[in-house]
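Internal tracking record. Fields below are filled automatically when a chain is submitted to the structure queue. Please do not edit lines marked as system-generated. If the sequence contains nonstandard residues, flag them in the REMARKS field before resubmitting.
Queue: standard
Priority: normal
Entity type: single polypeptide chain
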Amino acid sequence: MPDRFWLTGGKIASKPYVGSGAYINRMSDYCGKCRFDVGQKTGSEACPFNALYWDFLARHETRFSHNMRMKNMYATWHRFSREKQQEYRSSASAFLETLTPAAPGWARKA
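SYSTEM-GENERATED OUTPUT FOLLOWS
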């Protein structure tokens, strides 16, 4: 199966299902009692899903940028200044460093 099909082997989704804090807040009630601020994009008080979203897209740009359904997200990413891109990447990395892997070898590779 071509790698453009996601989630169910292409039966439902044609792009990876990834969302920012704003999306999670809009589509669920998970953010109501969260200690993080979904309105902040980066930093220690910001919802980590905001930075994780952009970090995921940046890390997988080679793989996903040719998917027509991802074009708008990558166009937005490329409009960000290099400094803003690095701020998102650094914030995501700082958050990931706070996590404890569930088991040895589980953590993402550098």
